[in-house]
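Lab notebook, bench 4. Continuing the backlog of folding jobs that were queued last week. Each job is logged with the same field layout so the records can be merged later without manual cleanup. Today's entry covers Tetraspanin-2, a 264-residue chain. Filled in by technician R.K.

JOB TYPE: sequence-to-structure
TARGET: Tetraspanin-2
LENGTH: 264
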Amino acid sequence: MANLSNNITAFLNFLAFMCSIPIIASGTWLASKPDNECIHWLRWPVVFIGIAIMLVSLTGFVGAYWKKEGLLGVYLVCMAILIVLLLVLLVLAFVVTGPTGSYMVPGRAYHEYRLEGFSYWLRDHITSADNWGNIRACLADSGICPRLNNHYVTAEQFFAADLSPIQSGCCKPPTICGYQYMTPILWTNPTNAIVDADCSIWNNDPSQLCYNCDSCKAGLLGNLRKEWRKSNLILIITLVILIWVYLIGCCAYRNTLTKPHSKK
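JOB STATUS: finished
OUTPUT FIELD FOLLOWS
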């Protein structure tokens, strides 16, 4: 039974090792997105946890397969820490992927976004005055808005486009302002310039646009929600597997401790 428990633990840790590869790939994908590039503390947590899972799983595999008591002890401590960190990351992910803040606009294929529609925690930690200056400059430097000129020429093409939340919130004025389309980042003659504060903030300067608008802040949060939702399933499956592996690893460690006493 002891050998069987150790072999099962070794096998499960090998599976956990293999599962760390898509986690690292998912984290790298998240980190490469313009919004995550501009929010530094959100860029790499999934990648770091994926690498940690890979290393800890390798330690558990070696400790269980060769019945190394010390390695199994280190493995169990590190795995417990990893499970807690993953739980924290999942809580953060569910906060990010909570309310959408989006609303439909008649005659438009894309959605627009209200900052008030997202959680207070996100607004306080990401779009506050202390943080937005650097994020705004980063978004302006990313070139995400000027690139729209390469894809859309007419107003009909633009209004039928499936814009990302950032593109919808940062690269154009809110539809309610009544601006006239010239190019994706050039709009003139608003008919309702006082209906929303963002209407007067809009600027046709490519370095300004609507980067200071609440709609841009909401678009950034909308992008975060969209991308983190794609990673949530991987994180949940990983957490379930790690807890299962950890419980069996505890059995293997107990068996390793009792192994010397079973010898005559």
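OBSERVATION: The first strand starts at residue 102 and ends at 104.
SIGNED: R.K.
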